[in-house]
Every structure is written in structure tokens, then in C-alpha cells.
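Example 5.3 — ABC transmembrane type-1 domain-containing protein
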Amino acid sequence: MGIRKARIKKYISRIILYVLVVLIVVWTLAPFTWLFISGLFPYKELISDRTTSWFPENPTLKNFQAMFDMSSHIGQRFMAALRNSLIISGSVTIICLIFGTLAAYALARLKFP
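Solution (predicted C-alpha cells):
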């Protein structure tokens, strides 16, 4: 009887784990999904008061085209912001790697009480 209870407990814990993983994935991907869907809305439909739908009535890719079009003001601002983000994130990553490597070396070589 104990083996059966152990199997049931393992099965239930695995189900709970999978449910938690699915919830975390949905929680993580939901903002990106909403961002993409909002990009498909035409500007007037996006800011109108009667927008109650999760999906646009007239989907368009013009917002994404404007974002990557370097001749438009939006495209220039987006590329400048993207460049700044890459510079900051790259710098922080390199600095963290340097300090992390030094700390790992110290922890590996020195004896701590």
C-alpha cells in the first residue's frame, strides 16, 4: 500500500509542477503577446474608446514598418533606443562577468571558515 501512495504522491506533485511551469510561461509571455497584438492595431483603432476586442478589426503591419524605417522619426528614435539598450546591457554583462569571475576564483582558491 505504501508504494501505491508514493506513486500517487509523485504523480500529483508532477501535475502541480507542470501547472506551475505553464503558469510561469504564460505570465512571462503575456506582455510580449500583448505588445505584438497591440502593434497590429491601426493607431485610431488602438486609441478609440470603443476598443473592446483583443484582436484588431483591421490588422496592419504599418506600425512595424514605421518602427524599422530609418527615414521616419519613429524609426530613428527606435534604433537609437535599441542601440542605447544594447550598449548598456552589453556593458553590464561584461562588468558582471569580470566581477563574477574574480569572485569565483576567490571562492575556489581561498579557504573560508
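Remark. Residues 1-60 form one domain.
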